[in-house]
């Protein structure tokens, strides 16, 4: 049966139903569905602007998350609606946890995304030659710059209760190469992911997207891709955050190959919902 604004259900036309009914209906969908419906149906257009609808897509613990952000008061005071708060958190990640992490929302679903800054990672090498510097295109105040090392290990940890439940996530190492770097062109590293007692890997990854394509014991090396802002992101692996999960996810990158490396900028590790459409293509 096809319904239009003039259709009747139980003697009442759809456009005679209270707007609160449509707000409740839209609250049971997704942000992407709401935007699509508001564009094609006058019934939904007004309800799609409601704070009731967009409040349902914001995390229930948003107040607690923003309590650790230096920019929370600016965000909340400048936004004129819950919809504006939502899209601001999608488009402009906000710094939380005393500058150690950033928080944002995936636009199409409202799922939580986090990025661990270089300050929030454990970075070890054969020689302690890491420095914290400021770069204009990072969301964080500091990035870590490697100057000259023989081997290195990068480790990040995050509590799974911070993330959205029943969600398949992917972790990415975000980094870049400044001019006059060396030691990364055709070098590989190993990656492991550990969630509570379950560990995956190691899998082989390449630092450089232009490195020589290779196979390792039948498995294909993973290469980084360029992000829209010019940084590189290297996929570390996937994990499913089950309902009620309250553990710790640990992500580790090892490069113990005996080879000197010079000039490498580490922005952090990003954890965001897996883009299934991209993976399928």
UniProtKB/TrEMBL annotation:
Residues 11-57 form the F-box domain. PROSITE patterns: FBOX. This is F-box domain-containing protein.
């Amino acid at each position: 049966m096809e319904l239009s604004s003039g259709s009747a259900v139980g003697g009442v036309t759809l456009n005679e139903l209270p707007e609160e009914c449509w707000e409740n209906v839209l609250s049971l969908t997704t942000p992407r569905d709401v935007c699509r419906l508001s564009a094609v149906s006058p019934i939904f257009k007004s309800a799609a602007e409601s704070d009731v609808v967009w409040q349902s897509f914001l995390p229930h613990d948003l107040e607690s998350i923003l309590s650790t952000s230096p920019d929370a008061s600016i965000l909340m005071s400048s936004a004129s609606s819950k919809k504006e708060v939502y899209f601001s958190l999608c488009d402009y990640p906000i710094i939380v946890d005393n500058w150690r992490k950033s928080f944002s929302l995936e636009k199409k679903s409202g799922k939580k995304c986090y990025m661990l800054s270089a300050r929030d990672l454990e970075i070890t090498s054969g020689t302690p030659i890491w420095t914290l510097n400021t770069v204009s295109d990072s969301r964080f105040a500091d990035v870590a710059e490697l100057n000259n090392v023989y081997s290195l290990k990068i480790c990040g940890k995050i509590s799974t209760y911070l993330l959205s439940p029943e969600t398949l996530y992917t972790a990415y190492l975000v980094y870049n190469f400044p001019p006059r770097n060396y030691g990364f062109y055709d070098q590989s590293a190993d990656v492991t992911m550990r969630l509570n007692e379950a560990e995956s890997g190691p899998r082989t990854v390449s630092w450089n997207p232009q490195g020589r394509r290779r196979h390792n014991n039948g498995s294909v090396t993973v290469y980084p891709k360029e992000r829209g802002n010019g940084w590189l992101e290297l996929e570390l692996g996937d994990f499913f955050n089950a309902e009620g999960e309250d553990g710790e996810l640990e992500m580790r990158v090892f490069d113990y190959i005996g080879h000197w490396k010079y000039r490498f900028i580490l922005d952090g590790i990003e954890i965001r919902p897996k883009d299934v459409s991209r993976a399928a293509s």
